[in-house]
Amino acid sequence: MAQKARVNRNLRVIQKTISKLLTGIATVGLVTSPVAAQAQANEQASTQTGAPVGAQAGMQAGGAVEIDNPLGIPANVVLLGQSDPNNRRATALVNGSVITGTDVEQRVALLVAASESALPEEELQRVRMQVLRNLIDETLQIQEAAAQEIVVAREEINERYAQVAAQNFGQDTGKMDAYLISIGSSPVSLKRQIEGEMAWQRLLRRQIAPFINVSEEEVRELLERMEASRGTDEYRLGEIYLSATPETREAVRQNAQRIVQQLQQGGSFVAYARQFSEASTAAVGGDLGFVRLETLPGEMQTVARSMAPGQLVGPFEIPGGFEILYLIDKRQILMADPRDALLSLKQISISFAPGTTEQAATARVEQFANTVKTMRGCGDAESIAATIGAEVVTNDQIRARALPEQLQSALLQLQLGQTTPPFGSVTDGVRVLMLCGRDDPKPDSGPDFEQMMEQMENDRISKRAQRYLRDLRNDAYIEYN
């Protein structure tokens, strides 16, 4: 019975962790538990450097470390003949299955659409090469599922496609079809992506889930460690890691800088992490989950400690390559977060007629601010606002964290009946928020036993799946045109 329960639980884990469409239309980040994230960060601290753990420690301490060269490759490599991978046409045969240039371009279109900005041709070429690698992996996954007699029916693919349409286009698959075609992609391309995801999910359900075991002792130990860490700061970080050698260091640094520029111009961090990051977190959009800084390499600790939520930093150098960090959120372990308070607010606003002069607008804002000061709480808001033609809108169910960061701290310091300072513009209108009620969150009790076990199994399934895919790549016959 215990084995059956474990298998069923593992199936749920796979359903949750792998059922993510790798597309710019519906990008989703995965939040892992503090402990599972620590385990992932610890593994990544060693895998990112490309060196043994002991060698990594030496590099972090600033000591000189001799890098192993198991293949005996000389330091000064001379290539015989002309070999420019950037001039290769982006087509391939993967164990006999064809990946065409059209397949690549249609997937690239999804990424460009998610970035919401045009990419220079040099950047597009790098995107194409990465997308080709992703398509090769997807093909290997579908082929392996078929070899294990796992078939994804066309009806199931269409059903999942309709679900994506429902999330983004109000259940109108025709609108999503038209959108995909308009950006240079196609419904066939997205459905192929869906097929790959579902085939891989079912393959892991059969080949990995039944063999994942987490003992009760391990779970209890981690729960005890979490309780001992109560109140410690945790950082939810997104990362893009690019490996580099002394020979490629400058080229990789420039590539990382171009990625940062695209992100600063509105590009999707999740989409870029999926396509470019070489860390194990690439599959979940670069999301490290909530981690304690001491579990990270020294350079990442230093940078993350000074970051504010929403801030992007990088590229900066770490042993083995370059890192781009994005601070998604920050919290304290097992402590209530004030930003989770449920607020009851009244928004009091004024608008300006087109052509309003700066002098007239200044006078109206001053009148508005003075009138708001005379209000005696929320019960007085509508009647006083009416005297100056202001509009009042009530919202009784809004989380503090759902508001812009500049307003969060201001609102959380208010008493009932008090208002924020006026904010806005002549174009958008000027407004204040009045606090009419606040329900503070309860202290976080953390995950229970079952949740923690599921999270630990989730982490182990993910690592085993990565090794599975690596083996498929090693055994594949791939020809490029």
From TrEMBL:
Domain PpiC spans what residues? 232-329
Q: Which UniProt keywords apply?
A: Isomerase, Rotamase, Signal
Q: Which Gene3D superfamilies match?
A: 3.10.50.40, Porin chaperone SurA, peptide-binding domain
Q: What domain of life is recorded for the organism?
A: Bacteria
Gene Ontology MF annotations: peptidyl-prolyl cis-trans isomerase activity
Q: Which SUPFAM superfamilies match?
A: FKBP-like, Triger factor/SurA peptide-binding domain-like
**What species was this sequence derived from?**
Allopontixanthobacter confluentis
Q: Name one Pfam family in it.
A: Rotamase
Which protein, by its recorded name, is this? Parvulin-like PPIase
